[in-house]
Amino acid sequence: MRISVVGGGPAGLYFAVLAKQLGPDHEITVWERNAPDDTFGFGVVFSDETLGGIEHADAAVHEAMSREFARWDDIDVHYRDTVSTSGGHGFAAMSRKRLLAILQQRCREMGIDVRFRSIAPDPAELAASADLVVAADGVNSAVRTAFADSFRPAVETRQCRYIWLGTDLVFDAFKFYVLETPHGIMQVHGYPYGRDGSTFILEMHEDVWQRAFGPIAATGLGPGESDEKSIELIRELCGDIFDGHQLLANNSKWATFGTVRCESWVHDNVVLLGDAAHTAHFSIGSGTKLAMEDALALAACLHEQPSVPEALAAYEEERRPVVASTQRAAQASLEWFENLAQYTHQEPEQFAFNLLTRSRRVTYDNLKLRDREFAASLDQWFADSLGTSVAPPMFQPVRIGSLELPNRIVVSPMDMYSAVDGVPGEFHLVHLGSKALGGAGMVMTEMICVSAEGRITPGCPGLYTAEQESAWQRIVEFVHRETPAKIGLQLGHSGRKGSTKLMWEGIDDPLPEGNWEVCAPSALPYSPNNQTPRELSVAELAEIRDQFVAAAEAAARAGFDLLELHCAHGYLLSSFLSPLTNQRTDSYGGSPENRLRFPLEVFDAVRAAWPADRPLTVRISATDWFEGGNDADEAVAIAQAFAEHGAAAIDVSTGQVVSEEQPKFGRSYQTPYADRIRNEVGRRYGTAVIAVGAISSYDDVNSLILAGRADLCALGRTHLFNPQWTLHAAAAQEYPMAWPKQWAAGKRPPQTGRTDGPEPRLDLVRTGGHQTAHARWRPEEA
């Protein structure tokens, strides 16, 4: 087979070695535009998992690499004159130049034709003359550009600038420095790569860069040239770090990271490899790792499959999920550093934990496995900050306004569609009662409608008749009598999403008969299948406001501990907030302030009617998941407006505002919105923030709470699967939580496995037989 490889970096060279090893008759040519000893950057990082694959595939390459490795277990977070050290992380790094030299030597030994200082022929010409073309030509891939119609690439650039440097200071750990400069917050990523040097990356938000480096940064630098004026200023800013050591440049210039994603990695007999196909932010150290794993997979698929097309299809099928997972983690890490300034109010202990768990691959439980001593110190700090005893973060008490909860678990509002004429029945008693018995600090009702016309479906409960009030009072009294849990009521109006079938009959589908008229801020149907709503007049707005007030007064009489105003998911109050659904031209539409007007009027009226000693909270959709709708910036402004009007908590959900939405689902996918609102709004106004959305393990809950990304976590489907989830989570963590006396005989820690949903990810764990030992790498160990 004739194989042309475009690009002589680690991905291209390593693929060539493996392909030749598995197919000695292959004729392989590698095209590399640079000289053999040209390389840009300094060190590259590998996980133990990747190194295991390299060792299995080519022991000679692995042995040569092993002689070069700098290995270390620690991460040091330098913040506010405090160094927080966490061990057990298991890194290996080496000089990029030495890695290339090893791979080049291996290519020579195997008779592979590597053509340095040679620009590859036109991609179409290569594809016509070879059986396979492997495009390993990096982030600016010419091959990818030539066949862009097939690969359909997209590059997302973000809001930070960074510069890649080196130093002859040999760090003894992976170092993160947070620098508070006159220009703003900057961050350093540093790690050793050998006996004589370390990688040193300086990164900052674009605004900070403009103030600090914008006036002096060089432009139009050629290949191999470095931005010396900027580097001189960096020496001044970071002098305390270097302590007399040198700061080194190598084609070092400012860049903005671009995340490359391609809808396809294959065009006929052409395949993308490494950065040509995908990139992952350097803060999780996965660029070279992913590239060499790609090479491993592609070579194996070519060997295992009977034809090139089948091999390329198998390669993409195998690698795409792995890459997607890594890119999600990298994106979370990238965005964390992009928004680092919002965390600089945190104490050093919390900040360090927040940084370590930023990508969600390291978690609270995972950190205990890596470094139990460090994890225990975090638990102690959190307890001390609250004036309580040590406990898993989820079991620390919390206040929402004047209401104290025994733990931070909320049973999220979940529509059950099981009421008759708006009256909750035996099902609701068992449903909510069982969740309260299950240990959660608070259970929330589903959305309770303020009128018959405000129901979503005929099965939705309400609070607009005496019979409904009496039925709710029975449920509240059971929760208060039999459990320590609090119970909250979510109050809302369906708006344009009303008059639809029960969920299991067709979610959001209109009723076949017996429809009632729906209303909205504007005459825009939720979907082409739904009714066109009546645009509400000012007089009708006042009437609906009064319906909210009457329902709130009934909720108070029924004894509810908390009231939540439903301003999310495209229901009436939510539809006033979004520019996609509110196109009014009066004082209730147009500007963000006008769109907030009616929801705030309802909030103020309800707050006046609701007992002063009971909290009033709000649920919002923090993004509409659609272009032109509300997103994170608008969500912060909306949350702030409600906080200023006295909201005791903001319950942060997303979407369901327009049927055309394009949500990005994933584990804890809504929590970044709660995180931002908590750190920008909640701490300023003393407003609690509740995170919700695909949170299913107690490990995730503990991680979110301890990192300061939320004050409480609301779990819905998890409690449908296991109504006693909180009790079981306590048992699994050996936390002495009181069980209902009737169930006490069944209380015991799980004998095997876990009972709290999906296992937490335990990536990159390397204990070396000493999980908590802070074994630092030293130069003499190289």
UniProtKB/TrEMBL annotation:
Region (Disordered) location: 743-782
Domain FAD-binding: 4-327
Matches recorded under InterPro entries: Aldolase_TIM, FAD-bd, FAD/NAD-bd_sf, OxRdtase_FMN_N, YqjM-like
Recorded superkingdom: Bacteria
Domain NADH:flavin oxidoreductase/NADH oxidase N-terminal: 394-730
CDD domains hit by this protein: OYE_YqiM_FMN
SUPFAM superfamilies with a match to the protein in the record: FAD/NAD(P)-binding domain (SSF51905), FMN-linked oxidoreductases (SSF51395)
Name of a matching Pfam family: FAD_binding_3
PANTHER family: BLR3436 PROTEIN, NADPH DEHYDROGENASE C23G7.10C-RELATED
Protein's name according to its UniProt entry: Bifunctional salicylyl-CoA 5-hydroxylase/oxidoreductase
Organism: Amycolatopsis silviterrae
